[in-house]
Amino acid sequence: MLLSELYKGQPDIEITSLVLDSRKAIKGSLFFCVDGYETDGHRFACKAVDNGAVAVVHTKDIEKRPGVAYIKVADINAELNRTADLFYGHPSRKMTMFGATGTNGKSTLTSVIRDVYGHKEPCGYMGTIAVKYGDTTLIPSLTTPDQIETNQHLADMVRAGMKACAMEISSQGLDRYRVDIIDYDCVIFTNLTHDHLDYHKTMENYFNAKKRLFTMVKPSAVAVLNADDIATYDRLKKACACRTVSYGTDRGQSLIDENGNPVEGSHSPVKSPETVDYFGKDITLGTDGTDFTLCYQSREYPVHTNLVALYNVYNLLGAVAAMNECGMPIEDQIPYLAHIPQVEGRAEKVDMGQDFTVLVDYAHTPDGYTKILDYAKEAAGNGGRILAVFGCPGKRDHVKRPVMGRIAAEYADRIFLTLQDPRGEDPEQIASEIAKGIRPVGTPYEFVPDRAEAIRKAVFTAQKGDVVVMMGKGNESYLYYEEGRRPWMTDKVAAEKALRERLGK
Q1: Is the pTM value of this prediction over 0.70?
Q2: Can you spell out the DSSP letters for 348-392?
Q3: Using one digit for the tens of pLDDT, what is the confidence trace for 355-414?
Q4: DSSP-assigned beta bridge partners for residue 487
Q5: Residue 64 to residues 25, 30, 45, 400: CA-CA distances in angstroms?
């Protein structure tokens, strides 16, 4: 595409790529000087030109090189969104776009949409787990990539024949304007609990970042809101730029404070099919599946799903509501809900014939710990123990560390603290901060710096009926160190390796 097609009055220079990182500039690149969270792109404009960039979009005064087009703008993020959308052919306008935000549940909810709505028309997925469309699976750079990468992935999906896409949308992605140009048809909110306060500083800032999604959608879209999330429901409904529908259950939820504790007297009011659009009742939870009745517009639908735990009833209700609102009737969805493919790293069982349960889960928040450990407690039954393996990320939310330790200690019978994305911080120091929450409860714990060895120790410690639960990494195949990502075999592979050794396979 010509630069003159992207910016009126500019020369007819062929633009081969859009870049934010000067190191990725090639011959014909258009470089955007974004003033980011950690560095200012204006500092690297000359480096981008040295690497082949032929045009630079900037907001501050910078050194100019002859033969290069310089475009000064007032709002770099607005121009980046507009230009990326135009350069890649407005891909989000060519698909039914689902966008889900909230603290927990985004990956499962959007994966369910991809797998179930995909029976109506080809549907892609973009989020924490992967970027998936057709036979293509890519490792994501971030839950919500920058504007260029997002639109490139969406354009690739369109070329591959996708007619829909389900996207996870992070609070940081919203705060940094990464999806402002995306043409969403349906936006879904899961819940709001303690997370990312190292970035947002307060829960109010965190909520306001999430809220942006619902204020910027087109009027013809629909917002699917969790009626049981009493901290957000009324405020989001009032803020929405489009019509809203609600989902909830007869169980309700309690508000969680910034330390991960239920707020006394904050349990959501008892609701009914008359007050909630997509209502789940008569919920029967099992270790291998869930049954409930879905009430919608005076009709009742019996639902059986292989998904487990109450939190997945909420994920399922949000997904069903979104798909129904976008043209896939509930009747058409129900047969597929019984056999939803395992969402990688989300309450994922590792079964090699052992007489105890091994679970891999992405839980990394106080609320997430509570939910997966509740399920682990149910799976352990009477007499079974819970053996927890986890750490906390380096250079992130120090306040959360003892909170996570306390929650784990209240459920677990033994804890193996280990490395988890240290990012240059001392893992033993991180573990000592987690242990501040463990010690008052009295649960035995030890620090095992090597994550694979920590998983191995837990597996070899387990007895019949126990539950080993690995938290924090899910299906991620990397660990973050100071210099960036290093490959990691995944918790599942580490568990399988330990199980083969123990079982002599």
Answers
A1: yes
A2: EE--SS-SSEEEEE---SHHHHHHHHHHHHHHHTTT--EEEEE--
A3: 999 999 999 888 889 989 999 999 998 899 999 999 999 998 888 899 999 999 999 999
A4: 478
A5: 17, 14, 9, 46
